[in-house]
Write a structure and sequence with these properties.
- With 330 residues, this protein is α/β, with parallel strands linked by helices.
- The protein has one domain: 3-Layer(aba) Sandwich (UDP-N-acetylmuramoyl-L-alanine:D-glutamate ligase).
- Helices cover 40% and strands 21% of the residues.
- The protein has 12 helices and 13 strands.
- Helix 3 crosses helix 10, helix 8 packs across helix 9 and helix 10 runs antiparallel to helix 11.
- The longest helix is centred in the middle third of the chain and has 18 residues.
Length: 330
């Protein structure tokens, strides 16, 4: 069956608030450098009031990936939950403005639209405090069968493993994708997610997943080993395809017996690493959906990641399609 979308992504619909900070700021607010922490609405409000002036932009891991796919000229759809409030309207507008299909009804009478407060150190490392709000109200009823069955790749955000109702939506999407012979991809999202849901993630990967995205910290945490190569070998026994990123060291990608070592694209200055993994996934899946060679898929991922870490914000600020064409990748 011909795919209507290159990628359909399911994740937490979040508005990002991104601001520069110092190491002292993290200490003063008891924030762990480089970590992702969940906070309640009151904690979110207090931290927001203490942060430096910054950038507010639609985010959420899978939402950022959809934006990257669209920037490459791909066809993308998104499933996530926002509230019937101002930030929800902003998120909906942003998704539709980039050309993505987004038609999930907003939540009425519940928690506010989710937001992630991201404090960025001078070296570009980010520390995230996330209020999940309406995003965790995503249910199986919000998963559009036509959208899932119409996607070449169904991309699932690991963060969805946290709320139980959202995990049901996750499971429904995976079932529909499998029945329609679509590729199922998952991102491990964060070491925080791996530590909380290691056994469930492992079971899902072994039973359902075709493609795994992870970084070095996440994959070594998943298998409780210190050696990167050992972790990749253990993943290869469980998933037929994977792309594992290592920041400036590039990425290791494999499909079956084929392996490619993909270098990172150089950047003049790393400004903000928010969204790097999301954009890598966008580039890789765009290439995969278009039938490009494995190494080219990895290079597209590296190119997309290099663009997003060169500025504040988790989504491309230029057309990735033009950058990829200039590099001879598409």
């Amino acid at each position: 069956m011909t795919a209507a979308y290159d990628v359909a992504a399911i994740g937490n619909a979040i508005v990002d608030v991104i601001a520069p900070c110092s190491a002292q700021f993290l200490t003063e607010h008891t924030l762990e450098r480089g970590a992702m922490m969940l906070v309640d609405e009151a904690e979110s409000a207090a931290l927001y009031g203490a942060m430096a002036p910054g950038l507010e932009t639609s985010g959420g891991s899978a939402g950022n990936t959809v934006a990257g796919v669209a920037s490459l000229g791909g066809r993308a759809a998104y499933i996530g939950k926002v509230a019937d409030d101002q930030l929800g309207e902003v998120f909906t507008h942003d998704m539709r403005a980039i050309g993505a299909h987004f038609d999930v009804p907003p939540l009425v009478g519940g928690p506010a639209t989710a937001r992630s407060l991201i404090n960025v150190l001078p070296d570009g490392e980010r520390t995230m405090c996330t209020f999940l709000g309406a995003s965790v109200e995503l249910t199986a009823a919000d998963v559009d069968q036509e959208v899932v069955e119409g996607a070449a790749i169904v991309y699932l955000e690991g963060y969805l493993f946290d709320p139980s109702e959202a995990r049901k939506a996750f499971a429904k999407a995976a079932g529909l994708a499998r029945a329609s012979d679509r590729l199922i991809a998952i991102t491990l999202s964060d070491s925080f997610v791996v530590e909380r849901h290691r056994e469930a993630l492992m079971e899902f990967i072994e039973g359902q997943v075709d493609l795994v995205f992870a970084n070095a910290a996440e994959i070594t945490s998943l298998f409780r080993v210190d050696d990167f190569d050992q972790a990749v070998a253990l993943l290869r026994e469980r998933a037929p395809m994977a792309a594992v990123t290592r920041s400036e060291q590039g990425s290791v990608v494999y499909s079956g017996a084929q392996t490619a070592i993909v270098p990172a694209y150089p950047v003049q200055k790393v400004v903000d690493t928010t969204g790097a993994g999301d954009q890598y996934a966008a580039g890789f899946m765009f290439g995969l959906a278009r039938g490009l060679p494995l190494e080219v898929c990895g290079r597209l991922g590296s190119l997309a990641a290099s663009e997003v870490i060169s500025h504040y914000g988790p989504r491309p600020q230029v057309w990735l399609k033009d950058l990829a064409a200039a590099e001879g990748l598409i």
